[in-house]
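Lab meeting notes turned into a lecture example. A postdoc, R.K., suggested we walk through two folding results consecutively so the class can see how the record format repeats. The first protein's sequence and structure tokens come next.
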Amino acid sequence: MRWGKPDKAPERAKTTLIAKDIVTDPDALRWGTVSTIKAPVQQIARFIAYHLEAGAAQMDIFLDVPDAEIARQLAHPRVRFHQCDDAFWADKPDKARESHQLRQASNASQAYKASDLEWLAHIDVDEYILTDQPLAQHLAAVPADMAFARMQPVELMASGDPWTGPAYFKRTRKAVKAKTADLIDIYPTFGAYVPEGFISYTGGKNIVRTGFRRIRLGIHAMMQAGFKVSNGAMLETVHVGHAHAPDWDTFQRHFDFRMTHGSYRKKTNGNMILNDVLQVLIEEEGDSGLRRFYDEMCAATPERLGLLRKHDMLVTARLDLDEKVARIFGSQEPVK
């Protein structure tokens, strides 16, 4: 069976934004994150600890399922928890809470409007900003006429313990200007059909300048009054490391939701895309087909790592999440 390529999405109307006053001193520059989260407390603790140690001056955490105990257990002066209960949504449009994507955008936009930081990143609980030097140094060097900076995506591969040992991430084909033939070399069965070699998003995430009016922060775009803001800089050595499916159990647990409402869902064009590939595997092979797909696309086998390294598509990092949790929250054991 052959799968076709998806049509290109239509272009949105665009605009540019120019900031009047910017901070160019890395020591004075303050950046932070905003996230809408539904996850176990340990995962949230790791996410918070990692980014506080990376230099985040403020983190806004919107708990999609309200939980006062999580907020109590992970209380920190640089973290603000927002409980997304009925009272929270009462003064917002009904549409704002219809899907998790709309809730994310609504919450991120609310945090943006209230922010007193210089820069704000809209990221998820399974994402980690990877950088070769303090992020503030990169942001201080972004040209004054750039309204946002783009962090390139890298996707975490499944290995023994990426949280405390080496974590292996793969880059997109476009990031290294590789060819589709290179993807087929790395992923012989599915490389021709999986965009960029990623099973999650390939567009990266933005960290945006604050202070502009009428801003809506989407998951991958910055909008002003319905127009997509287009003047952004690429941070070549800053990546957003996405732990989308760090193990087979996680892939299985989220699979049905992602097929219908998440990153594997059917898009508006009629061509065969990832959703179709996965659907065919389910119909023809069941779980064994999905496992075959997962092992080829996600497992950090020595052979796969070697092929990624050969094509300059491998990024290796150390997250050391539980050590960071112990330092931030004062516990020798991971938060439970």
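The second example is placed directly after the first for contrast:
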Amino acid sequence: MISNHHDRPGRGLNRRVVCAIAAAAIAVYSVADSHAQQPTPALTCEAEVVRISQALQIAHQPALCERCGERLARTLDSLYRLGVLPSFYASVDSANWDDPQRRPAMMSGRSLAGIPDGGDLLADIDSGFGPRGIHRLRYTASNRPVAITTVDRSVSIPLVPCMPGGAR
């Protein structure tokens, strides 16, 4: 009898992880393929947020909340147009916030940024109220947006540069 070792628990890759990787690869390929075939106008930052939300859903992750999406669009707009994060971000070094589930009063309406992650930095994508969200914006030390990722790094969605000026 031939053993089917793939049916045993704890072996191989988690199906959810494989699906998330496949979905992200398809999204990246389709964006790259469409750019290679025809010149398309730049996405607005709002359209990029919609694309990100759809990619998160395909990867079986929670979609961005409405306020989170608005703040992400404003963040991308600010990074591309001005090269800085918006004023609603506080540096992780200056914030006294240890418990991710309980937002201190001084952080009401603000989100954390400048979270070290290898050679890059992370910024929270959340509503600015309530607990920290599970999504992070990965960006370079020179404030170039790179990807949207989950806290556990199980999903990472590369960003397509968006046209500044649409988000206010």
